[in-house]
Amino acid sequence: MHDIRAIRDDPEAFDRAWASRGLEPQAAELLRLDAELRRVLTEAQEAQAIRNDLSKRIGQAKAKKDEAEAQRLMAEVESFKAVLAEGGAKEAALRSALDAKLAALPNAPDCDVPVGEDEHGNVEARRWGEPFAIPNPKDHVDLGAGLGMMDFEAAAKMSGARFVVLRQELARLERALGQYMLDLQTQEHGYTEVSPPLLVRSEAVYGVGQLPKFEEDLFRTTDDRWLISTAEVALTNLVREEIIDEEELPLRLTALTPCFRSEAGASGKDTRGMIRQHQFYKVELVSITTPEESQAEHERMVECAEAVLKRLELPFRTVLLCTGDMGFSSRKTYDIEVWLPSQGTYREISSCSNCGDFQARRMDARCKKAGEKGTRFVHTLNGSGLAVGRTLVALMENYQDEAGRIAIPQALHHYLPGLTHIGGRRA
Q1: Model-level pTM?
Q2: In the annotation, is 96 catalytic?
Q3: Is 300 among the residues known to form the active site?
């Protein structure tokens, strides 16, 4: 959510920011609604002041036993009821229209975000590791089928497309990956583990910017709750309508949860395999911090996500997204892309975003310095640390051998005792 007062101060800057995200100028219409709202509020205040004065004069007339004057003044007060009611209705309609327009506008990009229309405008920041040299690599679907442990047909019978059933060691490997990621982020990177609800109210989804714009991408229940598309929704809303002591910041939270997405906007994309599913597991990272520390916290979060891939020895690159490829609530985003041998390219496995105070304004999440009266909005950040299913895909493809076995990286041996390969003999 944007601050209308900031738009009043520099409407051209906001129009430039929205233009970089492919939008037409918005400030003029916002300021027109804002001016009309303030005019109606002023008229209502003036009418209320007159009504209050008339009421006072009624008391004075009664004190003087001037009943005729008192009746005349009472009739005049009565007439102001309709004026005030009409003003209240106008105020509510204008405020709703202004809030709806503000809520539908994306965050303004940070000054160092490259301008671009789509993913072709993204800028590579760094690479780690060399892509594995695998002759004639199989994709994860063929590998899983060869092992007899990945079943899309059984999932389709009970749930439809974009679901999978994992069995035996592949199911264990998925579980081990999630546990490993949680342990790394909590024990080494200082995140606090949370087990949040998977169903949330509309206010929570609105707070992180997924409503109203992305309603079609979400699953909704019959009692007006929403299945979380990411644990970011629940974790970030833990500070909703709270005032936090700045000495307690940053708050670093993490959770391993199922995530649910309708993929309404991804028709025809990645229909084969586990890359784009309706249900998947993900370890989410969320930070709540002060405005001064959010940039440094963002860089730290990206490093925490990268650490998972480094420990698993999976080649990746980190990309700074351009204005046309960023998420709605983000002001700056890094994507981490892992190497997939079967596709001969890097694919997104984590997206780490700094949202500034954009989500905090929607949630009314504030912080306060000790000894000071005033409050200010916190900055919120979120990132994947990592998407478990996509990590499983990357591990299978990068650690395959010619016999179709999957080697287990050293970092996971503790979580899979006695198992060095899937499809091979136990150690």
Answers
A1: 0.91
A2: no
A3: no
